[in-house]
Design goal:
The structure is a homopentamer.
Chain A: H1 9-18, H2 32-44, E1 52-56, H3 59-62, H4 78-86, E2 91-94, H5 96-101, E3 112-115, H6 136-141, E4 146-153, H7 158-175, E5 179-185, H8 188-191, H9 199-211, E6 216-219, H10 226-229, H11 243-253, E7 258-262, H12 269-281, E8 286-288, H13 291-294, H14 298-315
Parallel strand pairs in A: 1-2, 1-8, 2-3, 3-4, 4-5, 5-6, 6-7, 7-8
Helix pairs in contact in A: 9-11, 12-14
């Protein structure tokens, strides 16, 4: 990449953040089917007002049952389904098995996002690729309001991933099904350029998901780590940004696609709420917290959910 | 994974076992076709009362004829088919060749589970993957009441396995055919985390099968081995559970999917019956013993089968 | 594998051979289409009386033209076609090119077995896999009465092989076309367990072919070699069997599928006839000799064929 | 390759350039659908007069967001779309995500080229292959006037690339959609023969694209580098050509397919204009400059675009 | 391979050549569609009298533009098309791009052979495989009279090659399109057995092509090289044949399939004509010379073509 010689990199970065484009309404661009379904998540369920509060219960496949021990009740999938319905979530995201055997009891009470690919974390993720175990047609049949796809940006198997995503994306277009991409940097090439959590990697992941046709992008929180960031390509290797600015970059890179930020492993309550505030203020549309919520017993879970909901509504900046 | 800091791991484990959720009826969630067929196995054939006593005759492909030498009569597949019919099994499980050439003589006398994939044990199982040699449509054509699929959880080829299982699962949904997943941990990554027989591995396998859409999960008995378990991810690396608790964990992880436990190589009679008792009392639905049964001559085989049947009926805890 | 402790392995082996189950009629189990076509080979052409005398002319692809030099006339495929028709063979087996360009002249005079896969022997066979170059539909179109498929049992590519065979087997079921499996052990794992010619390997190959849906299994003659057999799995590593007993084991392992034994490279006449006698007396249904027949000039070929035919008819033990 | 012995290589080269065949009209050979659509790009939009001025906005996927920092406005894809429409481009080229979410606002104002494959630059490009993420049917549905495909000439995965391109090309033929091939030499074998930028490599890439059915070929500027060119096959290893002659060779190798030259990373204005002049005078049809244009703020971008347009019109030599 | 002990290898070889079977008419065996189209090439265009004089213009993809420098006019594909039409060729063979953009001007004037696969020579050919870039349906659509396919005999990827060829062959059968196989030995296993140019290799390639369903086989001239031939399998390792005998062997191995011999790189005129004479006298049907023809300027090219044509007609021995 060549830069204009008269440009000061630091100046550039500030400008990039300051001049953040106000994205046009996403819903206005969508087909009637996508618009109808996404409208349910944004306005008819959950906190509403154009926000997304999503409950993921895919850890049983991605990590195994080990995540359920801190709260033994959570081993029964009904726990998360009941939580999503009673606490008023925008939607619950799970794989085909749970959707088939547990969602019927809650149909109509909370929207379903069917994740169509997934994998165990047993083998190394050096060549990460997550094969589809369900189809968009399965999602339609089950009454889902969106489809989830996990994309490993930068994996050496990106060609298989993009080809598979293409099929899912085309089926989403055909059925009017919103497409939510879990966009995760992965692979040793990413590790060598600052790591999967770097702003470089998350920013790229945000753009890739949008370019591949995502309507909503699920991102991990970018982590600022100068020691590792120096290995990233320019200008990321010399950027000095705050956490808030980092999020704004990623949200901007996702363009008209909506952004939801994830929580990862369990952290303290203030961090949960601060992250929620940060992503909404950066123009993001919501959060997707799993273990941070359902690794708590019922009443504690309801309490933090209430706080998240309140934070979402008080921080919302963008009309989807 | 992050734990609440005020949680005592050992306390957690006991709670996990004590608060085991009573699973809702599986049959109530199933489509009419699956329900009709599974009802046959659970109530109309075999011991009944919602139990499963299954006879596998897939060792000829998985191990070769060597398993038949201890009881030369068993080399003729008709031996196992006759045993299944006359001793009153819930169903017999075999591959397409036997189903085509031996099942016709017993059609109507004992239900058939068509195993749709399989492989020899000649090459190394480091990259285990078992390709389909038959389809769900074959099963429908042959009058089978369920389909069997072998999933290698944790194999480096899990992507191919999950994609193949997806096709089988979707065809099962289409035809109303119950799906039984033989869920086996495999691969060097599993070996490095405690081994294929560890509670960590079997527990994960139980959850994976259910998440991928299994109606019934076939598991091997988890083996407690502190020396190897210390390499498993937390909390398995520090758990102290009894054999009975281990089984309860696995049955719980399978959720609404029914669990049948297998016997493996031939063991003494008391172990056979104790295992039967353990899995039923833990909420499992039955057993699948092959070599432990048909490596005996006819009258001895009938005797142990009678004892297994009695044990199943006296130990049943769960209404499917 | 666990044995009953009170069992004497040698005793077991004798029993296995002595109690060889009389297989039920194969034809009675087959669909009308398969039955009609196989009946032609067994009773209407060739020696008849339920025997199979097959002429293979696939060496031009499997080995190249080098096999034709000992009898230059044999380089012209018409030589083998004329021999099959005039000497009265049960059927001739070849690939699509010969079937298309040479069989038309002999249509109606001798049945055709279309081999649907094959390969050169130029590259190493360490990862042996033989891709299909024709379809069952090609066989139907050409008026063939059976389809031939080469399966490499134990090859590291067994997953591809079994998946490919599945398609062929399903098409055979669909069209009522008998399926003949050339079942060959292959790969370094087999080499490490006694080799491709060992009883362990051939016995496994016999069972695999039958389990995968073969109606007829083509096997190589098992070779007793204590020095190599000791590396085979138990009980093969300590078995002491005669050549005759070895064949009986393999025929028994193929169950209701018929067995034809092959000749391999050219041997003396007495061996040819003794092998013929052995396989028929062991319950096999016939022989498939290629080079042993057509590497002779016309009148010599006719003479040995007459002797083989006579031996077949005088040794037949099984009603197919 | 054998040469006539009486031929002087240098003489040959000059002749090759001097006798450059006047290509017949491409449009006259095309099907009505291709002709209609390509006519729009060549005559109805952009500079017209049979020239092509294309704006690519695929860097967000090929390089990631890092390319947008020099001009922060460019991070919002609407910037490039607006530029293409307002400055009067022949067409804008992008991937499916941008085409779906940003093109609708400019439909009818500027033609769309849908690029149907692409990849990140995160993993090594040693085995470069760019999987399709969209189809020609997607392009038809979105109202695109051409399809873009990236071919990696010389990659060890060329077999997959050519098979994939075949599908795209056939669909283009079926739908009457012009096919533009981004023809890039890649892989270590190319590196060992002078490199991806050498005349040998670009010349080969031009021919390959045309031979594979491209209507328009997008090439990088060949770079003369005697130190590296000496590793190229004869006669490239000893050719002494000017930059202008090198371009003429490549344009000639593309035959009746039209050629557009790309700019790569940002260079100074005079180089931009000189390259434009060179390719048109060599018989090429246009240019495709991305970063050289939109890494400038709005008014500067408009100014250079105006100069490019003027240069195109004053340098055009070929009637498409 | 076992030989009759009383056979003298040298005697065998002479016999093989002396008793060369007169092949039956190929045309008589072909379907009406194939017969109609092949008749055009053999009798209605070119020299006629059942000969084939083919002009290949696939070097632009197989070698790149470097082959065109000796005769700069040849860089424009129209040169070869015009030559084929005006000099009266039996057919011209090229890939899809040239067929689409250059053949229309000569439709009806010279038959077209559409080559459906091809590749660059940039990467190593150790694992040679040439993916299809066009279909038989493309050939039908373009009015072609035959389809060309390049098969790499002995390549480690032979399984993919044979599976791909199967599809092409089946489509040829379906559409009545003659199939011409460019049959080339390739791969390190061939190199270790005497090399791609040895009689062993070419003889095998001839048989393979015919066995896989070729109607016409294109072979390279076998080269006698005792130093390398000693590594070939018996009896090739000890054969002493003349060039003429070597060709006769290869022609015989192709059976009823017609043989055309290629020229390779440019050689002197007498060799061109001698090769033509040799292949025709050995029972071959024609020649396919590319660089030997179009690497000459127009009048010289016409002159050698006239001489080739005359030689063909005066040497023809076989009625197709």
């Amino acid at each position: 990449m060549a830069y204009c010689e008269d440009t000061d990199p630091e100046e550039e970065q500030r400008v990039a953040v300051d001049t953040l484009t106000e994205q046009k309404s996403l819903l206005a661009e969508l087909s009637p089917g996508k618009r109808t379904r996404l409208h349910r998540l944004l306005f008819e369920f959950g906190p509403g007002s154009g926000t997304l509060m999503l409950l993921p219960i895919d850890q049983g496949i991605e990590h195994g049952p080990r995540d359920f021990f801190p709260n033994p009740d959570s081993k029964d999938p009904d726990y998360q389904f009941r939580l999503a319905a009673e606490a008023g979530y925008s939607a619950l995201a799970c794989q085909i098995g749970l959707a088939s055997k547990y969602y019927p009891d809650y149909a109509g009470q909370v929207p379903l996002i069917l994740k169509v690919n997934g994998k165990t974390d047993v083998p190394s993720s050096a060549h990460a690729f997550s094969a589809c175990n369900a189809s968009v047609e399965d999602a339609v049949r089950l009454g889902a309001d969106a489809v989830g796809y996990t994309l490993y940006v930068g994996s050496p198997r990106q060609d298989e991933d993009l080809a598979q995503l293409r099929q899912v994306r085309q089926d989403c277009d055909r059925f009017g099904m919103p497409l939510i991409v879990w966009s995760y940097p992965r692979g040793e090439a990413i590790d060598a350029k600052g790591g999967a959590g770097s702003l470089y990697a998350i920013d790229y992941a945000a753009r890739m998901a949008m370019e591949m046709g995502a309507d909503v992008v699920k991102l991990n929180m970018p982590k600022i780590d100068p020691a590792k960031d120096k290995d990233a390509p320019a200008p990321y290797n010399e950027m000095e940004v705050t956490q808030e600015e980092a999020i704004r970059h990623c949200v901007a890179s996702a363009g008209r696609a909506l952004v939801v930020l994830s929580g990862g492993s369990k952290v303290d309550d203030e961090t949960v709420l601060q992250n929620t505030r940060d992503v909404l203020e950066a123009g993001g549309s919501g959060v997707i917290f799993g273990r941070n919520v359902w690794q708590r017993e019922w009443s504690e879970a309801l309490e933090i959910i209430g706080q998240i909901k309140e934070t979402l509504l008080s921080s919302v900046r963008r009309t989807p």
